[in-house]
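RETRY 2/3 - previous attempt timed out on the joint model. Re-submitting the same 956-residue input unchanged.
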Amino acid sequence: MEELIRVTNLIKNFPVQKSVLDMLFSGKKQQYVHAVDDVSFSIGKGEVLGLAGESGSGKSTTGRLLLRLLEATSGSIFYDGRDISTIGKEELRRLRMKMQVVFQDPDSSLSPRMTVGQAISDPLRIQGLASGAEAKRRAIQIMEQVGLTPAEFLYRKYPHQLSGGQTQRVVLARALVTNPEFVVADEPIAMADVSVRALILELMKQLKREFNLTYLFITHDLATAKYLCDRIAIMYLGRIVEIGTKDQVFRTPHHPYTKALLQAVPVPDPKERRKDALPRGEIPSAVNPPPGCHFHPRCPFAIDPCRSGRPPLRELSPGHFSACILEP
Amino acid sequence: MEKTILEVKDLSIDYPISIGTVHAVRNVSFTLHKGEVLGLVGESGCGKSTLGLSFLRLLRAPGRVAGGSIEFEGRDIMSMKTEELRLFRGNKMAMVFQNPLTSLNPLMRIRDHFFETLKVHNVFTNRTEAEKKAGDVLERLGIDRQRLHEYPHQMSGGMRQRIMIGLGLILDPEILIADEPTTALDVIVEATFVDLLKLLKEEYNISIILISHNLAMVAEIANRIAVMYGGKIAEIGTAEQIFAEPMHPYTQGLIGCVPNINVDQESLVSMAGSPPDLVVPPPGCPFADRCPKGMDICRQKMPPMKEYRANQQTACWLYE
Amino acid sequence: MSDRMNSQKIEDPKAKYSPAYTVSKFFRWISKSNKTYGVEWWIMIVGIFVILMITYLAIFPGTVAPFAPNAQDSGPQLSPPSAHNIFGTDNLNRDVFSRIIWGSRTILGVAISAALLSSVIGIPLGLISGYVGGVVDRVLSLIMDSVYAFPGLILAIAFAAMLGPGVINITLAVAVIYIPTYFRLVRGQTLQLKEQLYVEAARSIGAKQGTILFRYIFPNIIATVVVVFSLNIADAITTEAALSYIGLGLPAGIPDWGMDLSLGKSYLPSGVWWMITYPGLMIMLLALGFTMLGEGLAEILNPRLLEK
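RETRY 2/3 succeeded.
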């Protein structure tokens, strides 16, 4: 499969705000939140890669780094073979036509003072692709494709007049109106109702086929990730701990964290209730993560070597990588 | 057999606001048995949270109970006087809310939260004893008792949620109402929390009403499940029945919507449309215009709630 | 009659714009709004009414004023209100009523121009400062906070004294003291709004900073700015009156309420109450009108935004 995105050694550190006292007295060294800690992966054309993890895993930050909404501390991002980590503002702006994002909260993603039509046709104006009547025509077309009908009627409405499912469709329409190739979806259904989630997921599947899209699907909900994604990467405290195809990761998980996560996912079936124990403790702080493998304090299989040295992502089988030194 | 500990009879709750009256809960009836976990599931706007608040008479104005009754061990909660109500709350029935950060006072240490609860219920004797009691509760919940001296912001989300349960448990209530307790929690923390609820049920025989839109989470622990839609209960039955043999079309749709990590699903059921307007609710079944099996009578008349199968009730004309 | 109106409504499409229909529709809209908004709505309506009335006087003074404002022959000197001079006359035999009417033009003109000037300068500076941050923000904030720290009137007096007499100078003096108000308001809102998800979404579409500021951030600030604008005018009215009361700014020939107030003051001990009372009442009425408009707008616009 042709590669569309390649990310190599991506690092993002956020400086921790120092209090005045710290600055005056302790001369403490500047501390950093290691939000994204040397992450590498690739996404093929037409593929859906899931980036899954709990809070503090760095998955949302990675998504933003990919789109350069945040600047990486170091590392490279390649889009369709081109290194986009260092291109200038103007070039980046034009690239934005092809790379789009859908955020978690549709209501906050839309300006409350812009009508649906304005919101959707704006990208066309901004990118100089169309304006006026042509932009409106294109917007109406997209609205119909995402199921925002009657399009003419909804065109003039404001976001607060629409239902939750409709606003998320508006966000989707806005993302697709410039005919992008790549869409980063950051928890797009987390805030929606159960039935709306199913609608949006189905819609995303359909749109992927119709528009020939490649997705990066960021989520904490593994059940949804399994439903939509082709490949999946599991992140923990800024690192990818396991990555592989859907079948590889869900049927034969290797990393203890992946196993714990899969176990913890609730199953909508009272006959299949969880019986095994969960890892103890909670996710440690990303400012001072545990040395060696970040997961070792909570891992039921941890051995001495786990405490020192970062375990590399090693290939267990073609395409299936795990950052755990234990034998499968 | 199982003793009925809470009985809700034909309860209706209204919110009179400027544009009209929102009939948030309409003629809802169900029972809660001792030691069981009842899941109250539904999507936003179905009335489940309003219902949960009403049990402890925590409805915010202008919300008010417009009809029906809620009885705890035979006593009508709605007609309790102030003093009786104060002793009832926390003591017999306690509530755990959704967002633990905003439910805890950031300026009070954890132990002070416990002291306050004890004082309000006139069971505070002295600090040493109260601290011991609070420490015991925390240990039950898997938290080191040293943390009593800390402030809420020093604890993680999962821990704060457990503190909330602790505050609910310190008076040994018989019923615990949890309103979307895991919405703000990570996957593993959520699973740990559910295990905790299981522990409470099994070791301490506490009855729990679990209000949530997360069907999978409710499936992990509930004995019985009530599905709400448009302010009414659409179906109520054991957890097995609801998931394996749902009767009401809304329940069927809802179950079909949820991705199951253990199953390879080709597609999910999609239910187009949105919940009905509760200011002018339709005269018939609230699900009528979204229902794939909707008939004329569904739109015109409200179907009665009947037990069509053993232990399973639903309100649907298909079975009449 | 009503039957005819009804049949007009059904058959004749042009009837939609017939005066009777429009008026009835207007009243129906008012009663519906009253139910939705309550007393703030009526406060605003009263404010608008007062403003409109006085604006009419300002634009068409000739249609109401019986005399020219400076005509020194409109009646006997210092005569109390009578049929001939509704508000009496002043020491130069000028008709107080006419002076009031012609004076409305001055005070309204200065106040509105000053408010416009302040906003046109303060708003863009606030937007830029809030959005760009950094050194620009620090410097601008420092300047604005310093100006803001001064009691408004004192500063206006200083500026007026510095600039000298003249309508334009007075307008400038009044305008300067309000620039920080707009700046602070807009900057604060911008700081808040630039963290909103839709701003990040706009960036992800490739919008330039200017586009983001004016199409995404500013429209969401307008509601509060409009309220402040109205209250600002109210304040500018009293400030302008105060400046001319002290004697700074306007040349003698231009009819001005503040000046008349000052003039009337010296005649009060002799029992001449009408020279000072009417200008005072008018200043108060006009300022109150704008205040009511502002307060009413604040209640109406903000809850609706929150009620979502």
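The domain at 4-92+173-319 of chain B is CATH 3.40.50.300 (Rossmann fold). Closing ticket.
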